[in-house]
Design brief:
Strand content: 5-15%
Number of strands: 12
Shape: globular
Largest sheet: 8 strands, parallel
Helix content: 25-40%
Number of helices: 11
Structural class: alpha/beta
Radius of gyration: 19 Å
Length: about 325
């Protein structure tokens, strides 16, 4: 395992973690236990994934079984879109710590820069009659961040970070923050390498974590089934001839090549899998080095903004929020 050092606390963040999006509770509990047995120590979850309780159960059982301690682990979770306001930070953090059965999390991220009004019975977004999500137009990142800073001082959060924020939004928080963001988690893969944003983060000692580092092969079905939203195009990174050829040359899988490509550029990766075989494969990425020509071949796959998968337009009307972080296709 290799580690990224977080600049304000000195905490070591494993550069490989287990992503848990789309992993239902009945599956993820056994998956997390298996992953911990395999050597994973970094688990990434979120309120919106609806599996924090199952993950907490798995971690508690693993510790109870004498296989490790809480201090061995690096646990990340996120403030949800329905709690993206200063008055809700403590409520959601308390609930998430309770579900995870922990006194603290190693990293707490604001999941998205925009906010939705919350159905207090279900803790899900309010959706209007026309199908659009009910936007909280008063989202204030600075106020939310200040409450998160207080929670960090109280010992309930080790490190603070952001997810899906753009450079201008990060800069604004940094300008007003006492504790600057330690980590930025964004979509990042060979088709969408985020070079400018990564340079900005490197210049400001912000560790970048890549979600969907393999192009999120299962996301399309999720978009269609849950949101009736079908992206115009969907990548097949694992099937790219260049990737398969490099994998064959090294005796590795395409997934191992794509993960190695990122971690060797100081990017943390959190691939999701519930298959024990793929969990083992994803963990085995540190014992080979890509040749310069191979690295250049993968760098040439970058499509810039055209490679983005997650624009959040499956939340109908989200682009109308003043803190929507991306340019809208076709907008003037």
């Amino acid at each position: 395992m290799r580690y990224a050092t977080l600049s304000q606390t000195g905490d070591l963040m494993p550069t490989l973690g287990l992503g848990t999006w789309q992993a239902p509770p009945d599956v993820i509990e056994s998956t997390v236990y298996k992953a911990l047995d395999l050597g994973y120590r970094h688990i990434d979850t979120a309120f919106n994934y609806n599996n924090e309780e199952a993950i907490g159960n798995a971690i508690k059982q693993w510790i109870t079984d004498g296989k490790g301690t809480r201090k061995d682990l690096f646990i990340t979770t996120k403030l949800p879109h329905v709690g993206n306001r200063a008055s809700d930070v403590r409520k959601f953090l308390d609930l998430q710590l309770s579900r995870l059965q922990m006194d603290y999390v190693d990293l707490y991220l604001i999941h998205v820069p925009f906010g939705f009004h919350c159905n207090l019975d279900t803790l899900t977004p309010v959706v209007k009659d026309n199908g659009e999500y009910d936007l909280d137009m008063e989202t204030n990142h600075i106020n939310t961040w200040r409450v998160m800073e207080q929670c960090q001082k109280e010992g309930r959060i080790r490190n603070l970070g952001l997810s899906n924020f753009n450079q201008a939004q990060i800069s604004k928080i940094m300008k007003h923050a006492t504790l600057k963001p330690q980590v930025l988690q964004v979509e990042l893969h060979a088709y969408f390498q985020q070079l400018e944003l990564r340079k900005f983060c490197a210049d400001n000692d912000i560790v970048v974590t890549a979600y969907a580092p393999l192009g999120s092969p299962g996301a399309k079905d999720h978009f269609v089934n849950k949101y009736n939203y079908n992206p115009d195009a969907f990548p097949d990174l694992l099937g790219r001839p260049e990737v398969k050829e490099i994998a064959s040359r090294h005796g590795k899988t395409p997934a191992q090549v794509l993960l190695n490509f990122l971690v060797n550029q100081k990017v943390v990766v959190i691939p999701k899998s519930t298959s024990e075989k793929r969990l083992k494969e994803n963990f085995d990425i540190y014992d080979f080095e890509l040749m310069p020509a191979e690295i250049n071949s993968l760098k040439n796959l970058d499509k810039g903004e055209g490679g983005r998968i997650f624009n959040f337009l499956f939340w109908k009307g989200v682009e109308k929020h003043p803190e929507y972080p991306f340019s809208v296709p076709g907008a003037v």
